[in-house]
Amino acid sequence: MEVIVDNLIEKALESAVSYKEYRADLDSLVESVKSGNPDQNDEYLEYRLLNQQRMKRLDKSFKLSESVLAKLKEVESPVIWLVLIENWCGDGAQSLPVLNRMAEASPNISLKIVLRDQHLPLMDQFLTDGGRSIPKLIMLDEITGNIQDTWGPRPTKATAMFNAQKLKFGKITPEFRTELQRWYTKDKGLNVVSDILKILALE
């Protein structure tokens, strides 16, 4: 089983893109659909438009504190952060820019991104409560390829909200998803930062 996972990760890394490339791909897709290209599936256009706006906002406004920047410089061994995601995913749009900013702050962290639906066998090795929930971050030792840890699909506080909603009502409503996005806006990426620092034993 471990060999299978290793092979799936290796295959994913071969097709992975940078954050800049991921953002450019999203912008290109949105513009293509908006211009009326009949070859593009616009089923998720509304979500992609929202996510494009969210990511633009975070790319522009999100900053790491000096103390967090100092902690990230303590990452001594080279690691790869492999993220499984889709550009229609609201949770991903709120978390990925934060992960990117953290990776940029350390010379030893390399962020790589792949689309979940192109790597379902890999996704199925990292399910959340039996589901293919994204984003899913897989932390890898760049030298050995060993999996160090995982994170996702949501920061801990958002996960608590999500689980409480599901326990109480048995389902996730559109109204709750709107409430969750409001929470992300108010939190400003801080919970993601805290979660990752704890995984890295830097907090």
From TrEMBL:
<dbReference type="InterPro" id="IPR036249">
    <property type="entry name" value="Thioredoxin-like_sf"/>
</dbReference>
<dbReference type="Pfam" id="PF14595">
    <property type="entry name" value="Thioredoxin_9"/>
</dbReference>
<protein>
    <recommendedName>
        <fullName>Thioredoxin</fullName>
    </recommendedName>
</protein>
